[in-house]
Design goal:
There is one protein chain. The chain is of the alpha+beta class. The protein contains five helices and 20 strands. The strands form six sheets. Strands 3, 4, 10, 13, 14, 17, 18 and 19 form an eight-stranded antiparallel β-sheet that branches. α5 links the parallel β15 and β16.
């Protein structure tokens, strides 16, 4: 990534509720929750009923036409006045069973320059991360992706990763904003989550069955992370770019 015009290695931070979970992550045990898990939560920092779903503004003017009957909607209301549409979402079968690994990338979205080549985390970010747990792992996201890519290649799985794009998600028009990639909605979240500065990794198979019907998580066991450590706190973290 680039920071103030300089190219630096990609580092990330992940929060954990217990030290045991943090140590397991360092050892290469990647605990990945299913995408549907986040839709069911009612808290304001992890819960997101639209997570991994496409959504667009119901108040746009659009119409349904099945070749026989045509129904037009304006401002969410059908022209005949009998039907009202509120939230319109779309996805694919089993899009609630995709394993997701969430972490925060370190970049201009959460770093503040305090002197030449030295950075600290902005307050909004640390407040947000403290909601997820009190143990934090700083690690090379490049190393993790490399080792997880080897894991999925050996098992003929699919992997996608990238930084979340934050937008006013309820005001989007899918006919203009979405492409043919079925995983694209997994990397778009509402701007209210912007302070999390999330970098997301998902893995999947062609049948979307990595997470069983009776489970809500998947564990990928990769090699130990060498460029990683557990942080005591985020408040006094100083990052030097040399």
């Amino acid at each position: 990534m680039y920071l103030d015009g300089m190219q630096i290695n990609n580092w990330a931070i992940k929060s954990f509720q217990t030290k045991q979970y943090a140590e397991a992550f360092l050892a290469g045990e990647l605990y990945m929750k299913e995408s549907g898990f986040f839709r069911k939560l009612d808290d304001s920092f992890r819960g997101d009923k639209y997570d991994s779903k496409g959504i667009f503004d119901s108040k746009l003017k659009f119409e349904f036409n099945n070749g026989v009957n045509k129904l037009m909607f304006i401002d969410g209301k059908a022209t005949n006045g009998d039907i009202y549409i509120d939230d319109i979402t779309f996805g694919f079968s089993e899009d609630n069973k995709i394993p997701i690994l969430c972490q925060a990338i370190l970049d201009s979205g959460n770093l503040v320059c305090i002197s030449n080549g030295k950075y600290t985390l902005n307050k909004q970010f640390t407040v947000e991360m403290n909601k997820f747990g009190k143990y934090f792992v700083l690690f090379s996201i490049d190393e993790l992706i490399y080792k997880l890519t080897n894991f999925v290649r050996d098992r003929k799985l699919n992997i996608k990763y990238g930084k979340i794009v934050y937008k006013q998600i309820a005001k989007r028009n899918p006919f203009e904003d979405y492409n043919s990639d079925i995983y694209e909605p997994f990397f778009i979240k509402d701007s209210s989550y912007r302070n999390q500065n999330e970098f997301r990794i998902i893995i999947d198979n062609n049948n979307h069955t990595l997470v069983s019907a009776i489970s809500d998580y998947y564990i990928a066991n990769i090699d130990k992370l060498e460029y990683a450590c557990i942080l005591g706190t985020l408040d006094d973290l100083i990052i030097s770019v040399v």
